[in-house]
Amino acid sequence: MPTFYTVLLYVIIFLYGIIIGSFVNVCILRLPAGESLIPGSHCTSCGHRLAWYDLFPLFSYLLLKGRCRYCGAKISCQYPVVEALNGALYVIVFMANGISLQSVLYCLMASALLVISVVDWRTFEIPPACSLFLLGLGVIFCILDRASLVGHLIGLVCVSGVMAILYVFSNGRAIGGGDIKLMGAAGLILGWKLIILSFFVGCILGSVIHLIRMKAVKADRRLAMGPYLSAGIFICALWGEEFIGWYLKLALGS
Fold it and tell me: Domain segments of the chain: what residues?
């Protein structure tokens, strides 16, 4: 049974996560439009600049019953969903990986992957700023994990390099340039073993889920791979080593 202090810690992590989730929403809205992330938040309907008491993540939406305080326009449910999801992802990271600097970096990675997933789902484009941010995290991982530096550097190119070749030979029809950058940056974070596994997990998720969507809701054949690759990266960052160990044990045992 978790102790009171353990529960309190996870509550604090969740609250911190929804605060960052509020900024994630800003990135989702402004990066595709090429807008600056610095100006204060405003209502997308009436343009009124929001006061500080309108900006409490998740709670402001609930208190205002999903409507703008100034014009009464309905607020998209994306805001509380993204904030709550970001908080939940942070809790999952710390529960799976423990209290460490690596967990903090994985949380930042999760937020960037969340931005990538929503933006790519909507626009079929991955913001270059997110891939650059992940690349920066990868550099930090290389510094902290110098003993495995070669593995991180191989991870930078082993999947993205193959995808780049596929991109060239298909004239960009088989894979997107944003996906290549995403897998390169994530490969620098995870190293070659986990990024290869992430790619396969992402492809499996994308194939299965998109086929279901095509049957159930008549989704278009065009597939945004960013959300599925991001899911694969997140899953393998936390549980990839265990999965590889289980697979090797099963293979060698047979």
Answer: 1-99, 127-254
